[in-house]
Amino acid sequence: MARVSVKIENHIAQVTLTRADKMNALDSDMIDAIIEAGESLIDNADVRAVVLSGEGGAFCAGLDVMSFAAMAAQDPEEIAMPRTHGNANRFQQVAMVWRKIPVPVIAALHGVVFGGGFQISLGADIRIAAPGTKMSIMEMKWGLIPDMGGMVLLPHLTRSDVIRKLTYTATPILAEQAETWGLVTELADDPLAAAMDLAEQISHKSPSAIRTAKQLISYAEENIADPDAVLLEESRVQVALIGKPHQMEVIAANLQKRLPVFKTAT
């Protein structure tokens, strides 16, 4: 059965987890389907924003129980150690692939966002959650640690003591608390509609400037201890945008009080 659907319309890719009968819990097939969906968008020049959501009553309930049993029968080193996707293993790629997509990814969260599902959401640029959504770093419940990219992504979003408390206890928190800790960007009664509205706003911005902005933000995060390098990179990528067709079209559209029309993504 299909685990993930991808629909591209008006330059927005809607990626939907479609295992609703299992609260979109992650099994082996779903892990592969999520990776395939994400990787299919990396080189798609027509896409300007991505909305990631889950069908049914939850965004994603994490790894399903049957997958634990299957993993227990395998050599853990063979599962975890091979770098199958650049610097990541297969499980890490499920979350990290969204950071590798060159356009903004907006996650619409509802129901439960547990374990691997929580780490997938961290891979998005922006997280919009319904009030009352439950979120948890669930791995400690099963005697494990978060190992799907969470420890790369979490330190950019919240404090060390918050990460430690959530990791040590596996206690679920509500989206309202997650927002105060920086783990949720904003709350919305209909997070999918809010995510689509935001994606539409982004789709009308300069595609090259948006892609450059995402790349520059990542560069700044990775080089936070080297402000000289970040300042130089700011200047370098700005030079590549000034006077180019996308910027000139933005200027013309602003002066003519209309939406810009962009021919290509680069």
Characterise the protein shown here.
There is one protein chain. Helix content is 45%, strand content 14%. It has twelve helices and nine strands. The two termini are 36 Å apart. Strand 2, helix 1 (28-42) and strand 3 (49-54) form a beta-alpha-beta unit. The chain has helices at 28-42, 65-72, 76-80, 90-100, 116-122, 150-153, 160-169, 175-180, 191-203, 207-222, 227-239, 245-256, and strands at residues 4-9, 12-17, 49-54, 105-109, 112-114, 126-129, 134-136, 173-174, 186-187. By secondary structure, it is of the alpha/beta class. It has two domains: 4-202, 2-enoyl-CoA Hydratase, Chain A, domain 1 (Alpha-Beta Complex); 205-256, Lyase 2-enoyl-coa Hydratase, Chain  A, domain 2, CATH 1.10.12. Helix 10 (207-222) packs antiparallel against helix 11 (227-239). The protein has a six-stranded mixed beta sheet with strand order 1-2-3-4-6-9, sandwiched between helices. The model has no long low-confidence stretch (mean pLDDT 95).
